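Q: Could you fold this chain for me?
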Amino acid sequence: MRKNARWSGMNVNGLNMGGLGMSMGLRKGHVNGKETHSRNQVRTMGNNVEDLDALVLLGPFIEVIRSGNTTGPIAGTALGSIEKFLNYGIVGNTDIGLHNPSIAFAMNTLSSAATHCKFEASDAASDELVLLRMLQVLEVALTSECGQVLSDEAVCEMMETGLSMCCQMRLSEMLRRSAEHVMINMVIAIFERLKTLEEEWVYIDSPTDATGNDAVKETLGVKAPHVDTLRSTTSPSPQPPHSQQQHTQQDLRNADTLTTEFGLHISLAPLRPYGLPAIQELLRVLISLLNPHEHKHTDSMRLMALGILNVAFEVGGRSISRFESLRNLVADDFCKYLFQLAKTESTPLLSLTLRTIYTVMDTMRPYLKLQQELFLFFLIERLSPATGAGSRGMIIDVDEEGNITLVPSGGKETIDHKTVATHVDVRSASPSVYARSGKNYGIDQNAPSPEVRELLLECLLQCSRIPTFMVDLWFNYDCDLSCGDLFEEIIQFLSKNSFPDPNGYPAIDSHFLCLDTLLMFIDQMVERSNADTLTPSDELLSRKSRKRLILKGASLFNESPKEGIQFLTENGIVEPDEDGDVNASLARFLRSTQQLNKKSLGEYLGKPENLSLLQVFMRQFEFSGKRMDEALRLVLETFRLPGESQQIIRVTDTFAEAFYESGPLEISNPEAAQVMAYSIIMLNTDQHNPQVRVSTNRMTVDQYMRNLRGVNDGKDFPKEYLQAIYEAIRQDEIVMPAEHEGRLGFNYAWKQLLHRSAVCGPFVVCDTTAYDRDLFQLAWKPALAAIAYAFDTAQDDGTLQKAISGFHQCAMLSAHFHLYDVFDAIVINLATMTGLLEEAGNRSTVPDPIVEVAGQKYVVSNLAVRFGRNYKGQLAAVVAFAVVTRHGNSMRKGWKRILEIIRNLFINSLLPGSMLQVEDFLSGTTNIPLKPKTPPPAKQPSRRDGSLLSTLSSYLLSPYSSDEAYRADPSEEEVESTMCAVDCVTACKLEELFADMSSLDGEPLTALVTAMQQVGYEPKEIGSEKTTIPYNPVTVLFLEFIVTITMRNPGRIELLWQVSHMGLAGR
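A: Sure. Below is the predicted structure, expressed as structure tokens.
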């Protein structure tokens, strides 16, 4: 504490003339040539804080902070005082501080002093307390109202100080976490400011203020050496050169610098408040910390940067998208690093990475179309097993009978130029984050661990729950020629993963999550509000159809270029021009189609008969302003050079001619261009051939220049031109597309993605119902499969309720969109689940027992008992009859299954009595008997136990006319099950099904009557040569139905007569 002694007292020589001396007639003089006006201003201001100059108030404390000769406690006290000035509003008061003429200079000087704080070190704990105080001052200075007058350079220094503390591992965990917290608060303030910046702030990016960009900043002593420093910005530094000139307070306002009483020199040059330059530099540095290939950056540093960046995009993501310079940072390096980090097996790092990706995609989706496609394909591929039912190679199909099956999507297809396969794999349109060869870079292609799978699945499902997410995918990707069928991929994935995998991950209920997401998609289509159409649905379907043709043509071209071109020509993809030449159209197809095999394309272009096509192909490229090596890279990214020397010469010469036509100033004639092209290919081989092991044997730049001496029309090529080509080839090999692998492969794919992003257009959000019909047509099969499986395997009412709701909504959508085959499939599935279709042909000859419950007689049949025990079957029956009753106009083939259920219910005496009543002209209203009333045969001695009275009662209660033996008396459980079946049939409200047949349209009405004839008549009996047909109560029942329907539709008798007549005639 010896240093503190110099503050304990002062020499009398240090006193300045005050009011006392002047009142006694003493003369006022100068002390060491310094003015005392500032100190007098402080002494005489009284209680009026408005008259206090901010520079005068903060000057002494700033001097203490920067002196370096004080101990930690004194520096901490000075920092605490400044913090109070800001917190109490003495400096930062909104009504006073911002109008203070020196507030901008004071705040920037304060920022510089705090970031350059110096003091004598003591013990670590005490020193860290001072550093913590410094962080608090920086936070308050930036987040207060006065923080908006800080310059770009000041903000960069403040953020650099915070980042340095976050990354300095020798500091305590507490201080590093505190620094991270301070950084987050400051980032919130900075990116909130971005919302108020106007577009004209972009002018700051111009290199007009070059002097400020080269300013050297004095950094904090605790700075981590491996952290990328924030570059100085265009704002002038608040620290001016030393000035010895003294001024009065009024003169200081117009001077370039201010020298305070304590010797602190402050620039009074105009200060521009911070804006886009500081924000761009902060974003660049934070993104650079995520680079997975920079080994100096640890996972803890990446976690810190991800946390800060996630907050930044939560606060200002949509504002970031307004500025092109910020968008470019996000679309390129930021997304590339994030996607590479998404391959990690570290759970904390993966969790925060996925969270940040979701935030970025959610806030900047219109500008990250292809980046989102890449990420979603990565999630699906990572979560899908390589083989088996859940693999991407299997898709769900539903046949006409409602049977759900898994079929391969990439099987060997018969090539037919007139037809196109219903499912074409288009995933190759998007780059993969996996290595493309046997070598692997930073990714284990084995199945992910349960923890990693849970995080990846949660991220995918979170994206899928966005209200317009599915329709957005279909509009932006499935209907885009250059993108994959992402909507279909996700629907298939959700459906297949709704089935529990016995070899899957028992720790998480992934199938429930996938089912919920799939049902949410169906529910969103039901509830989505009407909106204006963005693009007509017919146009999108036309695009999708054209996309299928292009993909099919590309697949055929890879197998046989001749057959592929023939297919493309026949289907109008490749069209001849006015002169009948197809080269221009074919060349556009060959360059723009990503799915073409690069090797096959190179061999095809190199053939002599395709020279004219090669010439047109080469002239599609824009070579203007490019060096020849850059142009050659551009060309060789589209195809692989063929292997034969003559083909290589043909391709190279054609490229050189096209390049010379672009007008390069360094090349004199086409012959020189050809020599230059060959030299670049040879230089690339020489510099990167693995067989040349000793670097001294490789060609030097002087040797390269010597080889090209005098070939440029008798002159030399410009020396700078050749040096630039040599260095570019030496540092970056020209690699053919097929040779891209590992990290190089990913970088190539990323470059292709950025190139496509420039031409693919923005991502469009589609809050409309215009495309729902087309989406539902693609999604109903996997959705129905998942819902049916969930219903069949559900163990709780919650899951059953979700499945029932899914059935209802799918039926409603299919009826709304007039998709009758879909509605039939739903009804057939529900009818099968009831278990009521299994009774036909299995009736026992022994009559079923009859019981009386609450005064009503009930038949206890096997079907009634089984149906009463089948809780899910009862639910399926209620749902089936509910959707059929409500949407009967949408049913065609499904009527047969519904009528089969009614037939079996009738045979087992479960139909409501009102449906069995018929009008008899002789006896009035009567019920349809199950058996004819024939004379009873001779009675046999009854073997049943009980009295004669009970036997007689059972006979009288029987609905049968014969006196056949009965089954054993039913148990209480069987009676209870029968009552459950009766109650379920009552809940199905079968009477309402035929209550108003006049509301049915012609086609469903005809289908209903036809189905009645099919179900009500036995073909064998009708086709027999017997003179009479045995009594069949089912035939009588459906004959009554046909007559009733015909009578209720007198206006459509011509439509129904043919079918009704066949039923009446027994044919």
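A (continued): The first helix runs from residue 19 to 23.
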